[in-house]
Amino acid sequence: MKVGLLTGGGDCPGLNPVIRGVVKVIDNAGGECLGLLEGWRGAITGNHIQLTPANTDSIFDKGGTILGSSRTNPWKNPAEIDQILETFKKLGLDCLVAIGGDDTLGVASKLYSEKNFPTIGCPKTIDNDLSATDQTFGFDTCINIVTDAIDRLRTTAESHRRILVVEVMGRHAGWIACYSAIANGADYFMVPEKPVDLDDMVETLKRKLDSGKKYGIVVVSEGAKLSKDFVTKDQELDEFGHVKLGGIGDQVAKIIEERMEIETRSVILGHLQRGGSPSAFDRVLGTRCGVHAGQLALDKDFGKMVALKGTRIVGVPLKDAVDKMRVLDDSFYEEAAVFLK
Ligand code: F6P
Question: What is the CA radius of gyration of the chain?
Fold first, then answer.
């Protein structure tokens, strides 16, 4: 069996362990793997490398993806879909393992349902916003990075008696902000799923400072809304039509300073949250996803995505993962909100 692999969308720690897992399972069964470079762009151009246990065995601790990534959306141009099918034919691929978030898996799902090409999906994203799986790899490492950053910000906030606003990623889901708030004892946090209440924020921070706390930490999700519009870096949309979020943290810091007359600073953690080595949890989850994706390929169980359900990795219909976004569950929000009182 000849299996193609690609990684698409925003990179995240844990992609390389997946690649290593797929390659090992296919090689153990006497098959062969090719890596298409830079997401769907490589599927269009045919640009690829040979993947073997020898060149993937030591990549389990490496961040990013050895295959490169892009936000190329071939469904925007039907000619590119034809080119992809041509590439698959030329390379003699029996199936494709697409490792990505909702955009990349959406392309794979449509290739399967509309073009009958055998695809298998593997869910990745620091945002943790994919349906049909309990958690995506990349998320755990991201929370650890945010935690390390806030541990550092807390000491300087305390020394200067300041409030520090920390803007985190997550797009339109508040998982990163909510988990970071819990892990870091944040004094206030904002997520896209809940309306922002600035009066409540100011009152809460005042109450905490009045009761003796000398500093404050506010975690803001990049996708939270201060008005009817998102705060964006510019007006451009990416190939999948997403706005480029960023900048709400600065605005929240200004509001706090104006309304509370306390020195406030903001930090946008940005792409730091996606960089570096995967945590042990993400190395294990990524590897297990890769092993099971390889097995689905060998079983010719196509149109499926590997998913974490409880502690097991199972195959679920690829379509279920991309039909709708998994936003922050209310119960998690309520657990974190206990500390806003
Ligand atoms: O989906 C992952 C993510 O990091 C989001 O949290 C963020 O909004 C977006 O990607 C940033 O995209 P880019 O890397 O294209 O700037």
Answer: 21
